[in-house]
Amino acid sequence: MLDLLRTMVINISIVVLLTLFLELLIPSGELRRYLRLVMGLLLFSVVLNPVLTIFNLAQTEPVFAWDSYEIDATQVVKEGEDLAQTWQNQASLDYNSQIETQTNQLVTEITGVAAVDAKVKTDSQTGEIQKIILSIKKKSKEVENTGLKKAIAQKVAGYYNLDSNRIEINMI
To answer: How many CB atoms within 10 Å of residue 104?
Structure first.
């Protein structure tokens, strides 16, 4: 009980001295009113805390909230792996989409090609292009299929540094 009273007197003295010191530093005016309000609230809490402790009304919570919870490390690791896999899949889809768009533009530049629909299959781990499937619509029926296919295969294979057997061309 005496320790409680001693601690209370020391805390009140510190707050009063701090209040006096701050009032000396702050010029008179509007700010001084707010300083007195804040320091009064602080003094009120310093006085009220020991009183609540005496009557066991003080709420004591752990400083760190996570101390009261069990953390399941395996669950966290599993969720992290699932999230990484989701990101990997999304990145792979975006990568394939970019290559398909790029291939469409590349093949459309070839004379005799009216429209292109490219589908790309890549290795999900390395991103290496496994196969490119092109559906080509010719501008006119007079354009020779074999010559056009050869030109397309050479241009795409050269651009991506692929073997031409990885490129499948279907004429529509």
So the answer is: 15
- Give the CATH number of the domain where residue 143 resides: 3.30.300.30
How far, rounded to the nearest angstrom, does the alpha carbon of residue 94 sit from its chain's CA centroid?
A: 17
73 lies in a domain?
no
CA distance 22 to 13: 14
**Which of 19, 10, 18 is closest to 50 using CA atoms?**
10
pTM: 0.55
Token pair 């402790």 in the structure block, residue: 53
pLDDT at residue number 47: 84
Distance CA 166, CA 145 (A): 18
Look at 136 and 62; give whichever has higher pLDDT: 136
77 part of a folded domain: no
Residue 116: Cβ within 10 Å count? 21
Is 49 found in the same domain as 105?
no
What does the pLDDT look like over 137-170, one tens digit per residue? Answer: 988 887 788 889 999 999 999 999 999 899 999 9
In a domain, 72, yes or no: no
